[in-house]
Amino acid sequence: MNVKTALVLLVLALATIFALVCVLLTRGRAPSTCQHLPPEQEDTEDGQSLVFADLTPEEMAQVVRYLQANLGLPLVDASRAKPSDNCIASVDLQVPAKAEVLRFLDGGGARPAREALAVLYFGNQPEPNVTEYVVGPLPTPAYHRDVTVQKYGGKVPYHRRPVTGKEYMAINALIQRELKKAPQFLTMCCESDGTDLAILTTAPRGFESGDRTTWFVLFHHVPGTGYYLSPVGLEVLVEHRDLQVSRWQLRKVFYNGRYFASTEDLEQEFLARTLEVVRLKKPQADAVLGSMRPRHPPDSPGPLQFEPQGPRYNVRGNHITYQGWSITFGMNPNSGPRFFDIRYRGERIVYELSLQEALALYGSNCPGGMSTRYLDGSFGIGRFAYELVRGLDCPFTATYVDRHYLAESDTPKTNQNSLCIFEHDSAVPLRRHFSDSQSSYYGGLRKSTLVVRTISTLVNYDYIWDFMFHGSGAVEVHVHATGYISTSFLHGQGTNYGNRVGPHTLGTMHLHHMHYKVDLDVDGQLNFLETQDMEYEIIKDPWSMQNTIERPYLRRERLEREDEAAFPLNAPMPRYLSFASPNPNKWGHPRSYRIQVISFAGKHLPINSSMERSVSWGRYQLAVTRRKEEEPSSTSIYNQNDPWTPTVAFADFINNETITNEDLVAWVSVGFLHVPHAEDVPNTVAVGNSVGFFLRPYNYFDEDPSVDSPDSVYLSSEQDTRACGANPLACLPTTAACAPRLPPFQFGGFLNL
């Protein structure tokens, strides 16, 4: 071996040793922490979104102090108020009139006065009633005006008010006193003295206007588990209309298929051995149906989504900007999430997008189940949107926002971290193509979406409300249902109304229907409604005239009046339905946004039902009406407890007015039928239990606006696909070679119950 060869081998050996040392030194070293860049400053609206901002706790407190000082009536804190007292039931934002807002946003007009809507229960009056006041201007109120008659055509009768927590406490105390009259029966049937049984309300409360008589269902309760799966077969009917709690009465008792006049009668039949008793052992925590405790220790963590350089969206107060989107968000304590002034690329597309109501209607052969029609807005869809669990309800690195409300108390409450905002990589391309014809190339764009999410827990059910904003200019609205099913005690022909899911538990069939308001302003306020669908025409082939072709063609139609634009639930609807502008795009078509509904709704209540008008929005999968300031919502919180004379009946909105070149509103119903089954225990999964709708650009642009996305990828056979400058995917090993900044896990959701 000559000297030159030996030197080459020595250099190679040293280089190898150096490389191995580097590997050994860096092995196990944690990657550097991701360095977040400031988000793009697209927010130039200069506080205009504050015209829609939810009230602050300070503003709510100011309204309470003003009313206490200026009404000239004794007011009791609602958390302590008896039915015979006066109290402030709630305080929320009074959304200004649209014309005022647009003059401010678009015309340089004055900012509308900031006002609150206060709901008061007047029980200490000769004619008890519910009254609504507009109070302003905020932050220092100086006036109030009664708007009840203006809104509803008359005073709101007192029996229509939602049941308060204080009222439920008094009802529970009454039930406990009555249960003490059947001690031996309770010991035999339930291994209980009644004090450890959970009590669940039903609604509505009777059969005609003025009734306030409610069935309550009793369950075994094991702390830390869902009692909803453990009915004991006992249900009681309580009349609680009288303003004096001492006059409330238990009117009927139901047990295992039989009805009794009182708990004393139930006890007497038990002692006389004329009552068939199903003996239930008190469930244990380790064996109860409703336990969600993990059955196995934690495993390795699953995939984690993170932003290597920080969020690409910007949140300032109640305003979000993201890749051309501008969104103003808020929360109504009754009806839930609401959005205003949604713009894409500087143009307003939606003036208002808001949830209106969620209906859950049950069937059963037990009285509580068969009479239940929950209208969740009267309970509080927004109020009961609690803190979200970081890393499970939303991504760990999402932005979390507090929401404030004032209801059933003179003191504002805060649901911290109860709304989240995040960018979501759906792991599917928004669009792509691989070319193997004529030339070789690949073009694509990943489907990244901005998601705004909140989750409402309405006793047993959890509704996940998603509002998504896509790079294509589309808005997607979805609701996922999870949580616990509501159940009845299995007896008789119970399986005609559901499936057996436990030893004595019937998972009762029910439907979920949700209603949304969509005030689209497509290239301006004045729009018309256009439908498109397909038909076949049979023609001779024009090149020989010897054969026939079934040729599809496009049938276009403009709908002129509201009656034409009210599409019954579960009936065929045009596949393409669009809000259109008189202005054309580059290719001569009206600039439009299409409404695409994804729903598997159950059947609506029969029209001849005495309570159908209270949920008459459910007649239609889609209805388009002229926008009116006096028709702000399709329902009312007062409809739950008097559905027989509804305070707001949506059917009255549809009166065949013209809808051509008018300011229009789309009212969208989505839902599904749920027949509970074994896999709904312990919890209903969200898979397959999701419905919603899309707002999609349809000739609104001259081409897909996502072509301008910086996330676009183009690869060709003539380029070096590994070059970072030409292919952003090639940059990821460097730009994403860092550990995400994860804040410490915290959860305080149990503090404000």
Automatic annotation (TrEMBL):
Its cofactor is Cu cation; Ca(2+). Residues 71-143 form the Copper amine oxidase N2-terminal domain. Residues 289-310 are annotated as: Disordered. Topaquinone (TPQ) is generated by copper-dependent autoxidation of a specific tyrosyl residue. Keywords: Calcium, Copper, Disulfide bond, Glycoprotein, Metal-binding, Oxidoreductase, TPQ. PROSITE patterns: COPPER_AMINE_OXID_1 (PS01164). Gene3D superfamilies: 3.10.450.40, Copper amine oxidase, catalytic domain. GO terms for molecular function: copper ion binding; primary methylamine oxidase activity; quinone binding. The modification 2',4',5'-topaquinone is found at residue 461. InterPro entries: Cu_Am_ox_TPQ-bd, Cu_amine_oxidase, Cu_amine_oxidase_C, Cu_amine_oxidase_C_sf, Cu_amine_oxidase_N-reg, Cu_amine_oxidase_N2, Cu_amine_oxidase_N3. The active site is at residues 376, 461. Contains 1 topaquinone per subunit. GO terms for cellular component: plasma membrane. The keyword Membrane does not apply. Residues 305-706 form the Copper amine oxidase catalytic domain. One of its GO terms (biological process) is amine metabolic process. Its EC number is 1.4.3.-. SUPFAM superfamilies: Amine oxidase catalytic domain (SSF49998), Amine oxidase N-terminal region (SSF54416). PANTHER family: COPPER AMINE OXIDASE (PTHR10638), RETINA-SPECIFIC COPPER AMINE OXIDASE (PTHR10638:SF4). Belongs to the copper/topaquinone oxidase family. This is Amine oxidase. It comes from Oxyruncus cristatus.
